[in-house]
Amino acid sequence: MTALRVAVVGAGPAGIYAADTLLKSDTDVTVDLFEKLPAPFGLVRYGVAPDHPRIKQIVHALHRVLDNPAVRLFGNVEFGTDVTLADLREHYDGMIVATGCERDRDLDIPGVDLPGSHGAAEFVQWYDGHPDVPRDWTLDARSVAVIGAGNVALDVARVLAKSAGDMLDTEIPDSVHAGLAANSATDVHVFARRGLAQARFSPMELRELDKVPGVEVIVEPEDVEFDDGSMQEIRATKHVQMVVKILQDWALRDRRGDPRRVHLHFLARPDRVLGAERVEGLRVERTEYTGDGNVRGTGVFTEYPVGAVYRAVGYTGSEVAELPFDAARGVIPHEAGRVQGMPGVYAVGWIKRGPVGLIGHTKGCALETVGSLLADAPDLPRAPRRDPAAVPELLDRRGVEFTTWDGWLALDKHERRLGEDRGRERMKVVPREEMVEISRAG
After folding, report:
1. If you write DSSP's letter for every residue of 19-84 in order, what string do you get?
2. Are the CB atoms for 164 and 172 separated by under 8 Å?
3. H or E element at residue 18
4. Is 205:152 a contact under the CB 8 Å cutoff?
5. Handedness of CA 371, 377, 382, 388 (dihedral sign)
6. What is the DSSP letter of 355?
7. 420 - beta bridge partners?
């Protein structure tokens, strides 16, 4: 009853790393994580492409944290609805918000709202079997545009170009496989506003794209162009050198003639989505370097006849109930993790710093936030209700069908059993009500 009690809102990597950092401190502490989905792990489960098993191995490390008896998981609990800020202040000495960034950033060009224009986040959630998105996805366009120069754009392009059969060894549910099997795409065009040196692809993602059976990656030789600013970036960073080398090699090689193609276009700024009733094309303006790595428009336009557009221009955060929010940046305003004007409330992860950095970068972010909380702890008012049993009792009184860590273990076992029947590691359960039923029965 004397231990520091901390609530964490969000059981993705950021929230779990924050819990782990707290538990590894010298402070006597217990942590309860509240997650709006019935299952934990956030973007690792619902934001990483299913054909990236190496990245998903991070789940093993997160699993060890949640297995700690000083940590409890309350899944299928929506902050602001099922539990409020007042509830958490009554039961906990401190609160860390780790709700992440799940929405697509806006792209302000004409025609972007036409049917057939999609946010990449929505598509990723569909093929990752997120319980709160529609089960069906229309994939009837033979030529598709992807706007963006990061790894999410590559994931979307790869999934669109890949055959459904090549995804059968992953954890995708039957509804996703059926959608991919109906995919008509033969050409996927990825558009980057700047040049090769400014692309935010990782070398590993690029190499994997080129290994997809039946898919040819094409870079046009005229896109291999650099200015002084670009050369400085290339010389300064090994990562950029590797990306540029891969892309240059692709621009120089002979065409293979594969049946499906991913075209990587650089110095190409999307200007307008074309169409009357739905997407019929994308107009792109050629850009040119300004000398410092930035670009400007040239007034030269090309129209690509595409039947769908996917916007992979970045994620942004959503407002969290009762907390301040910087809508322009999509984050909770803070100082070293301390939420402005909210003593005892802290932020961590992408909702704190924006959608930058890989999953591993969250560890340093958690260290700063937890350091602020522990520095403040002696002066924080102690919660009046300290009995751990009071929290599940509160949720039960409100009729919240919450899930637990034991419930996740039951769901995990169920999904693995479904996978075994198909020769896979696991097969995801998608409907929320089914996830909850399996978890609570376990």
Report:
1. HHHHHTSSS-EEEEEEESSSSS-HHHHHTS-TT-HHHHTHHHHHHHHHTSTTEEEEES--BTTTB-
2. no
3. helix 13-23
4. no
5. positive
6. S
7. none
List the domains of the chain with CATH numbers.
4-102+317-402 (3.40.50.720), 104-315 (3.50.50.60)
The one-letter amino acid code at 302 reads T
Q: What is the pLDDT of residues 271-329, one digit of tens each?
A: 999 999 999 999 999 999 999 999 999 999 999 999 999 999 999 999 999 999 999 99
User: Which contacts of 278-283 are long-range, i.e. CB under 8 A and separated by 24 or more positions?
Assistant: 278/114, 278/115, 278/116, 278/307, 279/111, 279/114, 279/115, 279/116, 279/117, 279/141, 279/306, 279/307, 279/308, 279/309, 280/305, 280/306, 280/307, 281/305, 281/306, 282/145, 282/189, 282/191, 282/306, 282/309
* Pairing of the two strands 281-289 and 295-304: antiparallel
For residue 359, pLDDT over 90 is answered with no
What tokens does 320 get? Answer: 């969290």
Is the pLDDT score of 52 beyond 90? Answer: no
**Res. 57: pLDDT tops 70:** yes
